[in-house]
Amino acid sequence: MAKIDMQNLEKEIKSIVAEITEIEPEKIALEASFIEDLGMDSMMALEILASIEKKYKLKIPEENLMKITNLKQTVELVSSFLNK
Q1: Can you tell me the distance from the alpha carbon of 9 to that of 41, in angstroms, rounded to the nearest whole number?
Q2: Whole-angstrom Cα distance, residue 52 to residue 59?
Q3: In this predicted model, what pLDDT tens digit does every residue of 15-41 receive, in sequence order?
Q4: Domain edges within the chain
């Protein structure tokens, strides 16, 4: 499998987060806390996880949900699964 383009991955995940949180993508900073800064709740986090799994044909165990606290961590988590 080809090495993942991290910038592209970040852009795609940011657009998923933007769609679910209804926040403009350019307002979602890499380190912004999904809960404190973006007002996300656990249902939104699950929705994001489900969208990511569907888009990249991955199975990410739900215990990883706690690791999805900001865009940077989400991108790192997804890339670790994509690189397996």
Answers
A1: 23
A2: 9
A3: 999 999 999 999 999 999 999 999 999
A4: 34-84
